[in-house]
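Bug #77: duplicate submission created two jobs. Keeping one. Sequence:
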Amino acid sequence: MKQFAKDLPHYMLLGGILLAGFAGLVLFSYDIKFQAAVAIATAVSYTTWGIVHHYIHRDLHPEVIVEYAAVSLLGLVILFSLILR
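Kept job's structure:
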């Protein structure tokens, strides 16, 4: 629990990134191209956040980078399937 409290600003930033991405998708529901740009920006921000977070904690490994990239790509596939329907 102590470690979570120490990392709370990191997780609040992640929550802000995801919340801003969700808000962008909802607020710009009339513009498919902008929604796609918001989805890509959110995925890139999520991956960057994960890399920086693990770099700060000195446990950044290639597997971690691949994992964050894979989750971002999966999210993009899901979002694009919803946006471009």
